[in-house]
Amino acid sequence: MDEADALEDIDAFYASVRWNNQFAQLAHLPQHLQTVFDNGKTVLEKYEGIVDKNSKRSRNSSQLLKLDDNRQNLITQVYNPESVGHSVLQRQEQLLSQKPQWHPPWKLIRVINGHSGWVRCVQVDPVDNDWFATGSNDTTIKIWDLASGKLKLTLAGHVMTVRDVAISSRHPYLFSASEDKLVKCWDLEKNRSIRDYHGHLSGVHTVDVHPSLDLIATAGRDSVVKLWDIRSRVPVMTLVGHKSPINKIYCLPVDPQVVSASTDATIRLWDIVAGKTIKTLTHHKRSVRDLALHPTEFSMASACTDDIRSWKLPEGALLTNFASEDTGIINTLSINQDDVLFAGGDDGTLSFYDYKSGHKYQSMASQEVPGSLESERAILSSTFDQTGLRIITGETDKSIKMWKQISDATVHNQPGLPWVPTLGAQRF
After folding, report:
1. pLDDT tens column, 325-383
2. CA 293/CA 310 separation, integer angstroms
3. How many CB atoms lie within 10 A of CB 315?
4. In what order do the strands lie in the sheet with 330-335?
5. In 3D, which of 392, 336, 330, 387 has the Cα closest to residue 363?
6. φ, ψ dihedrals at 317, nearest 5°
7. How far is CA 396 from the centre of its chain?
8. Which ranges form a coiled coil (predicted)?
9. Angstrom distance (rounded) from CA 169 to CA 223
10. How many angstroms from the chain centroid is the CA of residue 33?
11. Bridge partners of 108?
12. Shortest CA distance to 344 belongs to which of 373, 371, 312, 384?
């Protein structure tokens, strides 16, 4: 077996396990629903059911969904009420046996002040990990030294709030999206704006650089995704489908090459060759405020109010429902290589999750800057550095905060929040 086949088998096994953890309990109807279902049957249907049971045929009357052979065998062994006395208790035992990975807790190490408005976006240099850029309501973009936190450069050119920045790993360019309807390209060698991209009808909320093509993707209040040729400034494609403003967009090197999240409560996976949607994810009930791509696994996470979910790419299959019912409005998500998912709340709450199991192992309030208002507690943006050892947050108190893991923490002296899984957490 070559390496590609081995990786494919591992990926299939991982998806199967995650599928079973999330949806296995849906294989059979609950007893009270089965009773209602049986009472509505005709006499002939009841007779056919008795014959089927006596001849030990398949129980199609209680099947909610079709399963392949491997999953059917696993569910038959573990969840069959005839082979196990109490299937609910058995499912609870299966949940309890899934121990989430332990992660060290995080603490604040530095507060950086310099912006005179809300810090709307933050991105770390993807090449050398030496600096990071922030965009703010004060219309400026500031470049900071990652090690010392000192200001290196201020880029001024927009006339309204800078909502997002994207740093290219293949060009010396930084792209910024603003509510003034402009997308600007900044030359980091000349430290000035060299191109403007005109075409959006309203404010631009998000921008991302395609990892392998000379394209950038932008989206905003006009509810469309535009793909631009970096050098010619020509909008080569407009992707139409969302019904409301788009909050976040990401580009991937393989299909789906564009993923977008909108206030219409949907996530769309786009085929940029055909210029249309591959799949629309409608699981969220409210505005999807942010997306985050896993740095090593081909999956992503999305967040709206009280709801964080992870998805397997490229097909967009649901992987995990996170224990996020009490987190409130979530503005930003970030994931590092150690399977830590960070969620920044609109009330200033920092939540840290184990990405694989969905367990929240740490929750704390951000430390406000002295003199800031009580209402200025929201976390608007976040990103891990390239090592995954530090996280940078941009907040409404106009500050930038850096956090890192406690180095001397162990599973004994810092166990984190308890792992108490419930069957109710396994939502569909």
Report:
1. 888 999 999 999 999 999 999 999 999 999 988 899 999 999 888 888 877 889 999 99
2. 9
3. 11
4. 330-335, 340-345, 349-354, 360-365
5. 330
6. -80, 140
7. 22
8. none
9. 27
10. 34
11. 403
12. 384
- Cα(157)–Cα(351) distance, rounded to whole angstroms? 35
pLDDT of residue 51: 55
Q: How far is CA 130 from the centre of its chain?
A: 25
Give yes or no for a contact between 401 and 108, defined as CB atoms under 8 angstroms apart: yes
Average pLDDT of every residue of the chain: 85
**Residue found by looking up tokens 């509810």 in the block:** 223
CB 111 within 8 A of CB 394: no
Phi and psi torsions of 23, nearest 5°: -125, 5
DSSP string, 160-213: S-EEEEEE-SSSSEEEEEETTS-EEEEETTTTEEEEEE---SS-EEEEEE-SSS
Q: What is the CB neighbour count within 10 angstroms for residue 368?
A: 17
Residues 6+ apart with CB under 8 A from 338: 103, 388
User: What is the rounded CA–CA span in Å between residue 106 and residue 89?
Assistant: 35
List of residues 6+ apart from 390 with CB closer than 8 A: 109, 146, 384, 402, 403, 404
Count of other CB atoms within 10 angstroms of residue 142: 22
Q: Are 235 and 249 in contact (CB under 8 A)?
A: no
Tally of residues, the chain = 428
In the chain, the largest separation of any two C-alpha atoms, in whole Å, equals: 83
Place of tokens 């360019």: 173
* Helix 87-96 × helix 69-79 angle, to 10°: 110
State the Rg of the chain over Cα: 24
- pTM for this entry: 0.76
CA proximity to 359, closest of 111, 102, 153: 102
| 381 residue type, one letter | S
Give the residue from 135, 133, 137 showing the smallest Cα distance to 117.
137
End-to-end distance of the chain based on CA atoms, in angstroms?
36
Determine contact, residues 347/328, Cβ cutoff 8 Å.
Answer: yes
Q: In the block, which residue shows the tokens 């390239």?
A: 386
From residue 177, alpha-carbon distances to 226, 236, 263, 269, 384 in Å are 12, 18, 18, 21, 21
